[in-house]
Amino acid sequence: MTVVTLSADAMVDDSLDFAAPPAAKSGARRNLLVAPPSIAAHEERLRALYATFPRADTDLQMLDRLSAGLVALPAETYDLVMVLMDAGGAPRADISRDLYALLVPALKAGGQLRFEDAVRAAEQREAILAGLVAKDGGFEKIEEEEVVIPLRFGAKKKNGVPPVAVVQKAVVLNLDDDDDDLIDENELLSAEDLKRPIQIRTYSVFRSPAIKS
C-alpha cells in the first residue's frame, strides 16, 4: 500500500475544469475554435492554427466537451466561431441543435459561424433554424431590431371621466347606377285590376265518414 503525503506548501488546484472562458474586453475581436478531440494529439496542427488566429484573442474548445455540456460559453463574446475539421481525416461529429443553442448566443451581433470543411445539409438547416443567415460561405448572426411602441398617458378627461374610444363602422353599399333591372310593382297592375274587389277564397271542411263524432 502506497501512502502519498502532501506537504503544507503543496498547492491543490480545486478550480472547476469546465469554468467558462473570461469575457472579452470591449472592442477586442475574439475568436472561438471548436475542434474535434483528435486535434489534441497533433501539435503541429495547433501551431498552425495559432499562427492564423492570435493566441491572445482565441479560445479553443473541444467539440465533445461542448456536446456534453461541460463548457459554458460567455454570451455575445465572439466575432468568429470556427468549427475545425478532424485532424486525423475522420469525419467530425455533426453540429447538433443543442450545440447551436450554445454557439449562437456566444456570437456577437454581426459575428459569423464558419466551417473549415464542407457544411452539411442538416447543419445548414439547423443554423437557419437557430436564427443565423447564410453569408459569404458562413452563417451570420443578425442584429435584432427593437420595435418601440410609444404609449400615450395623461389624455384629457371630461368631467373626470376618461375618454372612451368610439369605433364607428361605415357600411358602404355599391349600387349600380343602371336601374333598368328594377321593377315597380305598381306597373304590374292595370287600372281595371285595381278596381276589382278583393276576393277572399273560402274553404269547406269535409269530415270523413269513417270518423265518428
Task: Describe what this molecule looks like in 3D.
The longest helix is centred in the N-terminal third of the chain and has 10 residues, at 43-52. This protein has a domain at 31-141: 3-Layer(aba) Sandwich (Rossmann fold). It is built from 5 helices and 6 strands, in the order βαβαβαβαββα. Strand 1 (31-35), helix 1 and strand 2 form a beta-alpha-beta unit. It is of the alpha/beta class and 213 residues long. It is rod-shaped. A 6-stranded mixed beta sheet has the order 2-1-3-4-6-5. The protein has helices at residues 43-52, 63-67, 97-106, 121-129, 191-195; strands at 31-35, 58-62, 78-83, 107-115, 132-135, 138-141.
Descriptive keywords:
213 residues, alpha/beta, Rossmann fold, 15% strand, rod-shaped
What is the gist of this entry?
By secondary structure, the chain is an alpha/beta fold.
Within the largest sheet, what's the order of strands? 2-1-3-4-6-5
- Per DSSP, the total helix count is 5
Shape: rod-shaped
Largest sheet: 6 strands, mixed
Under the CATH scheme, the architecture of the domain at 31-141 is 3-Layer(aba) Sandwich
Strand content: 15-25%
**CATH homologous superfamily label of the domain at 31-141:** Fe-S cluster assembly protein Dre2, N-terminal domain
> Could you give the distance between the termini?
123 Å
Please give the share of residues in helix.
10-25%
Structural class designation:
alpha/beta
Whole-number average pLDDT?
74
What is the C-level CATH assignment of the domain at 31-141? Alpha Beta
